[in-house]
């Protein structure tokens, strides 16, 4: 307690935190601490965003394993450089050793000549048997054969079964050329081999001309 008389400044309670109307508070305000926290948070957020977008472009923090395939792919597309040929070495492509030879046309086989038919032997005699029933036909046929150079051994009538047409018989294979020649001469197409005839036998039948 002082000995001075009390005035208007002595009305402030002694337990109050107020130290005078003309002095600033010594205790810091709570609002200043909250602003510091917000400022630090904003700075941290800005730094995080900058690190996320800027550092990958600068190549910082990327994995070496991710860049290895890119290097391999770039190396795989590189075309090999042509090797310089040695002096005196030809650069022309070597023909394949297994190249097929040029195909030559196969020779055309010549047609097999048909065997020449044996010539008729007019020295062999011929028998004429009339099978038409017309008298004198046997002699007429014999005359036609003689005019062509043939020799008639016998002229008679046919004694076998009645015939439907004219026939020329021959006994052996060597007589076939003579029978074919007489077939063309007399116009008789039927030529028959039979062991019953020893000589070529002409039998003019019905309708013989």
From TrEMBL:
> Where do transmembrane segments lie in this chain?
33-55
Q: Where is the composition biased (Low complexity)?
A: 90-103
Q: Which domain of life is it from?
A: Bacteria
Show where the LytR/CpsA/Psr regulator C-terminal domain sits: 125-208
Keyword check for Cell cycle, yes or no: no
Basic and acidic residues bias locations:
1-13
In terms of Pfam families, this protein maps to: LytR_C
Which Gene3D superfamilies is this protein grouped with? 3.30.70.2390
Biased-composition ranges, Pro residues, are 104-116
Keywords assigned by UniProt? Membrane, Transmembrane, Transmembrane helix
> Where is the region Disordered?
1-24, 65-122
The record's annotation in InterPro entries points to:
LytR/CpsA/Psr_C
Protein's name in the database: LytR C-terminal domain-containing protein
